Amino acid sequence: MKKTRFDRWPCPVARAVDQAGDAWTLLILREAFYGQRRFDQFEEALGIGRNILARRLERMVENGLLERVPYQPRPLRHEYQLLPRGRALFPVLMALLRWGNDWAAGPEGPPVTLVDRRTGQPVQPVLVDEATGHPVTPERVRARPGPGFPGALLEEEPVRRRFRLTTP
Amino acid sequence: MKKTRFDRWPCPVARAVDQAGDAWTLLILREAFYGQRRFDQFEEALGIGRNILARRLERMVENGLLERVPYQPRPLRHEYQLLPRGRALFPVLMALLRWGNDWAAGPEGPPVTLVDRRTGQPVQPVLVDEATGHPVTPERVRARPGPGFPGALLEEEPVRRRFRLTTP
């Protein structure tokens, strides 16, 4: 089945979804943050089929999330290391973790929690505005077209309604 | 193709991914936060096939992300309203938006940005610890098994390595 590509949509969410909005990709990233680097490690940790894993890793390398690096000359073997572009997806995983613990834990409580590496204190991730520290909630923020939004699209009525722009 | 289900994995990320780790589901949520509620609105805004949209909406209703509510008696018509469980995915979308603007904008700049509804000031979402306000980064936090993690699994060597537990 042909997958729809979202990478040219004038929307940062769609572009991120295009590269990371896939169950296996997100779980491979999770493993990478746990320190896994090798094909067999991903395979074992996720119970994922080898062909699916190979395809996902290839796409993640193409997209600059992971780098394929030789770690042994003979026989030649490669491992997959997180690149800055992939590391920058950490908040996405943490937001998913928070939701999973808040909304999908059983009566026994969260399966996995976070602690501060230095203090050992529990950490609860929450999204705030960098400048003011205010929580980022649907009530508090709204989206608006940025400098990269195509000017022609801004003339269209459905687009103007979406951004609640007054019609000229 | 049978999809792997992640909803019983002892991992909050996997459970969240099971319900929201899908490109169309995330984009339908995006539209819901823009205020769209009706089948035809989702269809028009996303250019999504009607059968795919119907299947995704059904699953989102089953999972308690959206509620199907009648808005007109004859002919009977329904709309889809965000439930608290779906609204709680807002930080996931905001983390994707931030990544898309930081790593997938062209030279012309971000296509969509956020502003504070009251002050109009730009908002940049960042993930911090609720209690301390410290940024949540891979260098600063680590995962550990929570109360809902199956005890038997904690005996297994790969699991102990993952959580960097010292072997007894």
Largest interface: A-B, 90 and 90 residues
Low confidence ranges of chain A: none
- Based on DSSP secondary structure assignment, what is the total number of beta strands of chain A? 6
* Tally of contiguous helical segments of chain A: 7
What's the helix-strand series of chain A? HHHHEEHHEEEEH
Structural class of chain A: alpha+beta
CATH topology of the domain at 12-87 in chain A: Arc Repressor Mutant, subunit A
Keyword list:
globular; homodimer; Arc Repressor Mutant, subunit A; 39% helix
Write a structural description.
With 168 residues, the first copy, chain A, is of the alpha+beta class. Among the domains of chain A are: 12-87, Arc Repressor Mutant, subunit A (Orthogonal Bundle); 90-123, no CATH class. Chain A contains 7 helices and 6 strands, in the order ααααββααββββα. In chain A, the strands form 2 sheets. A two-stranded antiparallel ribbon of chain A has the order 1-2. In chain A, a hairpin with a 5-residue loop joins strand 3 (112-116) and strand 4. Chain A is globular and about 65 Å long. The model of chain A has no long low-confidence stretch (mean pLDDT 94). At the A-B interface, helix 1, helix 2, helix 6, strand 3 and strand 4 of A face helix 1, helix 2, helix 6, strand 3 and strand 4 of B. Strand 5 (125-129) of chain A pairs antiparallel with strand 5 of chain B, so a sheet runs across the interface.
